[in-house]
Design goal:
The protein is an all-alpha fold. It has one domain. The chain has 7 helices and no strands. Helix 1 packs across helix 6, helix 3 packs across helix 6 and helix 5 packs across helix 6. The N and C termini lie far apart (about 50 Å). The mean pLDDT is about 80.
Length: about 210
């Protein structure tokens, strides 16, 4: 395998980002600890699902598509924040039926989160095997099962604190890869612009 200067640069960028984020000052910060879990979920759905789908469906219009998705997310998030603020005001006056529904929603959310984790790990296994040319449902299922068993045993031995620490390393590695990927995409767009330069666009409109 021959590595050119760009490959070495991308690996170096990912390494520098990972080392910077693994410093105790960053890793042990309260703001970072509060961000890790939701960020892991966002990266899982965005990096593994949304990005490949946008590349396949929207193509060069992926920027427009992701902008619409972000705006939709802000809109949904505003509704969720409103519901949370109203629920907090009803905490001391809620009925037993409302309290029971809240407990049931917590269980439903935990069940859905477990399914999503299993789905992402299975998808990751498929991507990994396809990358090395070993496409097989049996191998992908076996690899996903092995990863889930590792997480289960690790959590059993180390507890929730150990899983949180493992999640921090996982998110750090993914953010380092994303930083390197963004640099590579920016470099590619600079060498091969996906759109016409602005002066040419203006000139074509004027003519």
């Amino acid at each position: 395998m021959n590595l050119n200067w760009l490959d070495i640069l991308l690996v170096s960028i990912a390494t520098i980002v990972a080392i910077s984020m693994l410093r105790p000052r960053v890793r042990d910060a309260d703001a970072w600890k509060a961000t890790v879990t939701p960020l892991a979920s966002i990266i899982g759905s965005g990096f593994l699902i949304v990005a490949p789908l946008l590349a396949a469906i929207a193509g060069s219009n992926a920027t427009i598509a992701i902008t619409l998705i972000v705006l939709l997310s802000f809109w949904i998030g505003s509704a969720v924040r409103l519901v949370i603020s109203k629920e907090e005001n009803l905490t001391n006056t809620q009925t037993w039926s409302l309290a029971g529904l809240e407990k049931f929603s917590d269980l439903a959310l935990a069940f859905a989160y477990a399914i999503s984790i299993a789905f992402y790990i299975r998808l990751m296994s498929g991507f990994l095997l396809s990358g090395i040319g070993k496409v097989s449902d049996l191998l992908a299922d076996s690899l996903a099962t092995s990863v889930l068993l590792f997480i289960g045993v690790f959590g059993w031995r180390r507890g929730l604190h150990g899983l949180e620490r493992l999640e921090e390393y996982s998110v750090t590695i993914k953010l380092a890869i994303i930083a390197s990927l963004l640099f590579a995409l920016g470099y590619t767009d600079w060498i091969h612009p996906p759109f016409e330069p602005l002066p040419e666009i203006v000139a074509s409109i004027w003519n």
